Amino acid sequence: MTSSTKLPRLSFQGELGAFSHEACMRLLGPRVPVHPCQRFEEAFSALRDGTVDAAVIPIENTLHGSVHENYDHLLHFDFRIVAETNVRIVHNLIAAPGVPFKHIRRVFSHPVALNQCLHFLAANPQMERTPFYDTAGSVKMVIAEGLRDAAAIASAVSADIYGARILRRSIEDDRQNFTRFVLLRRMDQPALPLKEAAKKNWKTSLVFTTRNQPGSLFKALSAFALRDISLAKIESRPLRGRPWEYLFYLDLLGSVEEERVQRALGHLDELADMLRVLGCYRV
After folding, report:
1. Do both 136 and 78 map to the same domain?
2. Are 37 and 73 found together in one domain?
3. What are the Cα distances from residue 183, in Å, to 48, 110, 235?
4. Is residue 263 part of a domain?
5. pLDDT value of position 200
6. Residues 117/120/125/126 CA torsion (nearest 10 deg)
7. How confident is the chain (283 residues) per 10-residue block, as mean pLDDT?
8. Same domain for 242 and 108?
């Protein structure tokens, strides 16, 4: 992206300084304009309505698995995935300037973040854990309310944004904690000027349904196995209105420009009741 190119505005769920905000900056730079939303559906709706040019959403975490709500939104909104990034989740204990560690009696953060710092909290039983709607939002609240006995668990970026102080860094239980985020655009929008990559570094995401018959999923997946196409992920979600039938979300390593991928998708289309490519993008 050249300096003369106007940066797109991105929607994401959370407050400024949330890990989704960090993903926005990783994808399009630290100066990218953003539109924070309270709920995931609001971030999708902002893109649908043209309030923003793109949306960044978390799709899975290495410890907690898939963000099922967003898989459902991918089906209901007519968007395409154009890029992805992985963010290592580093949790920090953050308080107002001048508040010492020994004064902390309450810790605010998103329930998932609190559960990812159980060893630290167990070692400091004087700190009462208090669930909050957002990690960065908890920092914003602690600073806004001038709390002198409380801290938040959030990213280092949020401490910078709200003028807070990091008391303890990297307090998460597991350092191998990553969240995968995807960048979404409307189907009628041109591609963002992201750098090109070799075909071996491309990923294609799709969703399909199969007939409710023995061996249907096996036959569907054989379209890729027969052509030596690696699958990075497969996720099933209930198909609403049709009890005990499922949607299958699949990521394959390859580009829709490759002949073998085109043949595999054609093969799958013959077997599936519904097939939709969600995006082809660089890994």
Report:
1. no
2. yes
3. 14, 23, 19
4. yes
5. 52
6. -100
7. 67 96 93 94 97 96 91 93 95 97 97 95 97 95 97 96 97 94 90 52 94 90 96 92 89 95 96 95 86
8. no
Q: How many CB atoms lie within 10 A of CB 119?
A: 12
CA distance 274 to 149: 55
Q: Looking at the structure, do residues 203 and 269 belong to the same domain, yes or no?
A: yes
Q: Is the pTM of this model over 0.90?
A: no
Structural domain total, the chain: 3
Question: Are residue 69 and residue 83 in the same domain, yes or no?
Answer: yes
Give the per-residue pLDDT at 193. Answer: 57
Regarding whether 128 and 53 lie in a shared domain, the answer is no
Domain boundary among 134, 151, 186: 186
* Environment class of 198 (CB within 10 Å of its CB; exposed 0-12, middle 13-18, buried 19+): exposed
What are the residue numbers of the active site?
Answer: 179, 181
End-to-end CA distance of the chain: 18
CA 253, 256, 258, 261 torsion-angle sign: positive
Q: What is the pLDDT of residue 199?
A: 42
223: containing domain = 199-282
CA 192 – CA 279 distance, rounded (Å): 13
If phi over 0 gives left and psi between -120 and 50 gives alpha, with beta otherwise, what is residue 98? left
Q: What is the pLDDT of residue 211?
A: 84
CA–CA separation, 221 and 231 (whole Å): 9
Phi, psi of 214 (to 5 degrees): -55, 135
The CATH number of the domain holding residue 149 is 3.40.190.10
236-259 per-position pLDDT tens digit: 999 888 888 899 999 999 999 999
Q: Are residues 181 and 71 in the same domain?
A: yes
